[in-house]
Amino acid sequence: MNSSWPISRQQSERAFLVGVEFSSRSNQQDASRRSPQTTGEEIPSHPASAGTVPRGARVARDAASARVLSNLESQEFTSEESLGELRELTRSAGAGIAGEILQRRPKPDPATLIGSGKVEELKGAIASTAPELVIFDHELTPSQQRNLERELDVRVIDRTQLILDIFARHARTREGQLQVELAQLQYLLPRLTGRGIEMSQLGGGIGTRGPGETQLETDRRKIYRRIRHVQQQLENVRRIRGQQRQRRESAPIATVALVGYTNAGKSTLFNALTKAAVLESARMFATLDPTLRHIQLPSKREVVLSDTVGFIRNLPHTLVSAFRATLEEVQRASLLLHVADVTSPTAGEQQVQVEAVLRELEVQDKPRLYVMNKVDLLSEKKRESLRDSDNAVHVSAATGLGLEELLKAIDARIEEDPIQRVRLHVPQSEGKVLATLDAKSIILSRHYRDGFVDLEVQAPESVLRRMKSFVE
Hints:
Layout: E1 14-22, H1 23-26, H2 55-70, H3 79-92, E2 96-105, H4 116-129, E3 133-136, H5 142-152, E4 155-158, H6 159-170, H7 174-188, H8 196-199, H9 220-249, E5 254-260, H10 266-274, E6 291-296, E7 302-307, H11 317-322, H12 324-331, E8 335-341, H13 347-360, E9 368-373, H14 380-385, E10 392-394, H15 403-413, E11 419-427, H16 431-440, E12 442-449, E13 452-460, H17 461-464
Parallel strand pairs: 1-2, 1-3, 3-4, 5-7, 5-8, 8-9, 9-10
Antiparallel strand pairs: 6-7, 11-13, 12-13
């Protein structure tokens, strides 16, 4: 294989997948990944702002989160399901599956992760299937990666490198490309030794799709210089984004951010609510670059809805750090819509993983509303048994089922631009004012007399401020 060919030249790059399971870790549950314990406390009807959440309110919110998660399939990822997820990631990277193998052992082998016996078995499988690369469903140390490549005589990458490659494939904006490049460079640094030839041919397939278009020399000083340059460019992006956000925040418009596991249906929901045309795809990480759109709530208030990158189990820390500028939309949001795929057998565990990323972003205390998506794929009996609650709404973004209830639930949780009820006395000649009221308020009553229109309206405070001269 000529690894200097771009991915588009390769008709069908084929990968051999290696799943691993270590029994010494299978019984150990990281406390940070556990869902909150259920208590008898109730979720407050008006959650406090992030950073000022009283302990009692936080406990109540955690209890409500636990109740929502308990209604989902909550089994942990098995090694087979983890391998299935790796399969989907590989297809999202544009490769076919040449074969797969699963290794179970008490603990990782320091030299090869899977042990010498399994390496020999893997060599035989590779000889018969002739894949272009081998992908491990586990992070490899630099020495393990080098040892495996020497033993197998084929390119070897791990799950982290695969995810980085998918991000590089899907990044469209300059900001997204910079963020992926930064993550790739940070991942590359400890893996320079012994990889000079390969790293000079970045761009030749999955796991080698390189940062930018130029060849990357394996010189630490040059890489550090490039990292500083990319960080400076990202800082400029952050500054411009901050200025744009300040302009948005000068108006009393709340931001609502969609978060959730990759492929939970966030972009489909975003399109259904905003009538936008964001890419919808069953492939993982189809959305990388944030998209913002205004939507009108039933109260006639407007909010900004933000579509964000999907999360995944063991999301590489370098990606979370690199995408921090993009994920600032999540940090500044007034409300998080936590989208879950109710049809997934590991939906509960997926949501626990999302909560772990939210903690890393320090937004675990943000008010949130759980959106249980894809209910149209459930059986009719199961669908009829579903009940919305104070903090969970069941919807089908694909068919529109439940979207009206979702908008009402969002409306009830937004505190910005509060709704007021007033009486107005408007001259009929003020056509522009009357048109604004029709578009941006709920008209409760309307009477015409002596060239005036007497109205009782329910409208956002921002609208009524422009109507002060007509208030009775």
